[in-house]
Amino acid sequence: NAGVMQNPRHLVRRRGQEARLRCSPMKGHSHVYWYRQLPEEGLKFMVYLQKENIIDESGMPKERFSAEFPKEGPSILRIQQVVRGDSAAYFCASSPRVGLRMRGDSPLHFGNGTRLTVT
Amino acid sequence: AQSVTQLDSHVSVSEGTPVLLRCNYSSSYSPSLFWYVQHPNKGLQLLLKYTSAATLVKGINGFEAEFKKSETSFHLTKPSAHMSDAAEYFCVVSSSNFGNEKLTFGTGTRLTIIP
Questions:
Q1: Is residue A105 classed as helix, strand or coil in its secondary structure?
Q2: Closest chain A residue to B53 measured between Cα atoms?
Q3: CB distance B102–A42 less than 8 Å?
Q4: Quick check: A94 and A19 in contact, CB under 8 A?
Q5: Which of the residues A17, A23, A87, B23 could staple to B91 if both were Cys, CB 3.0 to 4.6 A apart?
Q6: How far is it, in rounded angstroms, from Cα A71 to Cα A81?
Q7: CA distance A15 to chain B (A)
């Protein structure tokens, strides 16, 4: 059973370009979360999605950032017109829907992250 | 509102000596608390979790943590450090056991093991 898959692992963009980060949740998981980790900091919640729905985007910057989780295919975190301050590690996590999570299991299963560098 | 404070940004211990990573939490609700470990350029792995059952929680790789409500603490310990324990450790709080698992992370403690 493959874990949460994120690609690319590393992404380099020049200022002003667009960055697209992809996340495929674990098989059977219908909930996806995106977190951002700035250098020397902990992870900060960005957005929580279910298939075709954004449930909580309270951590998303108001401009340039968007996320989707279509009916088919991976979840996408999109950053338009990137700036140097967007350089960070972006982690995706997934969980099964309520009622399917096993007691003792991690609430979220994390991917290995995408490290975005803006030059 | 909920938050966690990791009291040390860096901890160095010699191999074979005890490890103590400190964490204090603040939560309006009965919290669920977790410790995650992050090895360089890797994702996060759950070490252990507390969800209002036993206050002393045993995790993987010999780690354990004790929930102390009176002190609002959830410190992580290990009796004897191993070189492979060198990593970043995050204390995490969630006020929800089900539904929206919006976790709040501490700023992390970098553990260095001295040979």
A1: coil
A2: A104
A3: no
A4: no
A5: B23
A6: 27
A7: 24
d(CA B83, CA A3): 26
Q: Which of B97, B102, B108 sits opposite A42 (nearest CB)?
A: B108
C-alpha distances in Å from residue B79, one per residue of A100, B21, B48, B61, B65:
35, 12, 16, 11, 12
Q: Over chain B, what is the mean pLDDT?
A: 89
Measured between CA atoms, the residue of chain B closest to residue A99 is B98
Q: Using CA atoms, how far apart are residues A52 and B100, in angstroms rounded to an integer? A: 16
Residues in chain B: 115
pLDDT digits (tens, 9 = 90+) for A18-53: 999 999 999 888 899 999 998 878 899 999 999 899
User: What are the structure tokens assigned to B74, written together?
Assistant: 């959830």
Q: Do B41 and A98 touch (CB under 8 A)?
A: no
Tokens 């901890």 belong to which residue? B11
- Pairing of β B109-114 and β B10-14: parallel
What distances in angstroms separate CA A3 from CA A10, A29, A48, A62, one per listed residue? Answer: 18, 10, 18, 30
Q: Which residue type is seen at A96? A: P
Would you state the pLDDT for residue A39? 82
B66-79 pLDDT, tens digit each: 999 899 999 999 99
The answer to whether the Cβ–Cβ distance between A95 and B101 falls below 8 Å is yes
Please answer whether residues A111 and A8 qualify as being in contact, where contact means their C-beta atoms are separated by less than 8 angstroms.
no
Token representation of residue B10: 């860096």
Phi, psi of B23 (to 5 degrees): -145, 130
